[in-house]
Design a protein that fits this description.
2 strands; globular; 18 helices; two-stranded parallel sheet; 2 domains; mainly alpha; single chain
């Protein structure tokens, strides 16, 4: 059996970008005398930005074969449609976060939403594959400038108490559902065939949504305190941007080109660039310049442990959706639309367990997250035994996906709160940018390493099933690492109070 060389759909998860819970003491710029009566409505408005950014990561996956046929282009160029968005998103997240600190989060949110809407339309009207790749990169940049602002705006509307914890739980739920919605809409628009080039609708749909989001944000949200006195560290921006581009691009594209010499050169260059960047941060003495990353963050044990846990979590999660999408469509010959419907079973159970977990996190603490890891392991083990060459039944696929979604919902919203729970409010802007960047990087790394292993086994065996089974074993190992990492913070509840 020969390996199918047709386009390989790429799945990345920005899905559930992050949640953040600050300590009880709130920074002056985030404090309000009275809670805004419209805060829950404001939360809906704020969540529009991260939701549409996540939808646009997933909505392209099932459309890639159609886009490839339309432009009559190569697999590598089509994969850049996803990779370009990821690169633009990841590279500029920290810069976008710092610009929000300087110019105001509401202003940057509206600017990012406006740019995202415009670039979405440009994607939908692209005449060539090169134009589409360029506009996707710019769309990812736009997302990087709007999404980091949402964390501080949620703080502004929910300055303290249980409402704040619930608000960030809903943040995680909304983004988890956005990932599933994106996959469904991609298949739905292709299946509908309402216009000649039906794939263009996956981008043009953002026009009415984006305009609505901009208007609602302008009317409903209050501006946060700005820090105009301190200048943005442009040298740091340039160093970090170059370092991340040299790191993320070869990770997302190196395997497709057979890991040529330039990919290794870029990776080595990225290590040097990031090292120089952190040396620059350590030597930055000008009080008028705002560093992109406050190095005090890395003195916080829960932050370091949480970031490492999230690196493994998003790596396995993205690789699972990536390899499973390939197995369903190429191994079992399931249509893109049907595959997108099957993935919704994961979304429903994720929504339910996320809703339950944010209400019971204080009661069960870290044990709840570890239970979620065990549940996801059970889903992967079931797939090892049930996803054979003959192909599982629809019921088996739905049940396995539902079990995975159940475990994921127990882990993700609370894991993210644990990761940032001890970060002081004064470091909120820096931590949100760092956290989001690491999440995007882990998405690329997971697809590159675990997805690369999948394709390596596939190329040697010519069979999708042993390749997928090897990937499943790797996912189980990743979950085991997360389980052990959680033991480092097992003495604390998720809400930040010490366990007796």
């Amino acid at each position: 059996m020969k390996t199918d060389q047709s386009v390989r759909p790429v799945t990345t998860l920005s899905a559930t970008a992050f949640a953040y819970t600050a300590p009880t003491t709130i920074a002056p710029e985030l404090r309000q005398e009275k809670p805004d009566k419209r805060r829950w409505w404001n939360l809906f408005v704020i969540l529009l930005a991260p939701v549409i950014s996540v939808v646009d990561i997933f909505i392209t996956n099932v459309s890639l074969p159609t886009i490839q046929s339309y432009y009559n282009t190569s697999d590598a160029k089509v994969q850049l449609i996803v990779a370009a968005y990821l690169i633009g998103y990841a590279v500029f997240l920290i810069t976008g976060s710092r610009l929000g600190d300087k110019f105001g989060r509401k202003k940057m949110l509206i600017a990012g939403l406006s740019a995202f809407t415009v670039t979405s339309v440009l994607c939908g009207l692209a005449a060539t594959i090169g134009q589409l790749i360029l506009f996707r990169f710019l769309q990812g940049m736009s997302a990087a400038f709007m999404v980091p602002q949402t964390v501080t705006l949620i703080h502004l509307n929910f300055p303290e108490g249980n409402d704040r914890f619930k608000a960030f739980g809903y943040y995680g739920i909304a983004q988890g559902m956005a990932a599933i919605l994106g996959q469904f809409l991609g298949g739905y628009f292709i299946h509908g065939g309402w216009i000649a080039a039906s794939w263009r609708l996956i981008f043009l749909v953002n026009l009415p949504i984006g305009v609505m989001a901009v208007v609602l944000a302008a009317i409903s949200l209050k501006e946060s305190t700005q820090n105009k006195q301190r200048k943005l560290d442009m040298k740091g921006v340039i160093l970090l941007t170059l370092g991340l581009v040299c790191l993320i691009y070869p990770l997302t594209q190196g395997r497709e080109y057979g890991w040529p010499g330039w990919s290794y050169a870029m990776l080595l260059g990225s290590l040097a660039g990031i090292y120089i960047f952190f040396r620059h941060l350590g030597n930055l003495k000008d009080p008028q310049k705002e560093p992109l990353i406050d190095l005090r963050l890395f003195r916080i044990r829960s932050f370091n442990t949480g970031v490492l846990s999230v690196f493994f979590y998003f790596g396995l999660h993205n690789a699972f959706l990536f390899t499973c999408a390939i197995l369903l469509q190429k191994g079992y010959h399931i249509s893109p639309y049907t595959a997108s419907l099957l993935f919704t079973s994961l979304g429903w159970t994720y929504m339910f367990s996320s809703w339950w977990s944010i209400r019971n996190a204080g009661k069960y603490g870290i044990r709840m997250l570890q239970a979620g890891c065990v549940i996801m392991m059970a889903s992967f083990l079931a797939q090892v035994f049930l996803f054979g060459a003959a192909g599982p039944s629809t019921v088996v696929i739905v049940v396995c996906f539902a079990i995975f979604g159940l475990g994921s919902g127990l882990v993700l919203p609370s894991l993210l709160n644990v990761s940032l729970k001890d970060v002081p409010p004064s470091l909120a802007g820096s931590s949100s940018g760092v956290y989001s960047t690491i999440q995007q990087f882990s998405s690329a790394a997971g697809i590159s390493m675990l997805g690369g292993l999948f394709f390596s086994v596939l190329s040697h065996t010519g069979d999708y099933h042993p390749a997928y089974h090897i990937s499943l074993y790797c996912f189980i190992v990743y979950l085991g690492v997360i389980f052990l990492l959680l033991n480092r913070i097992r003495d604390k509840k998720i809400d930040g109070t010490l366990r007796k």
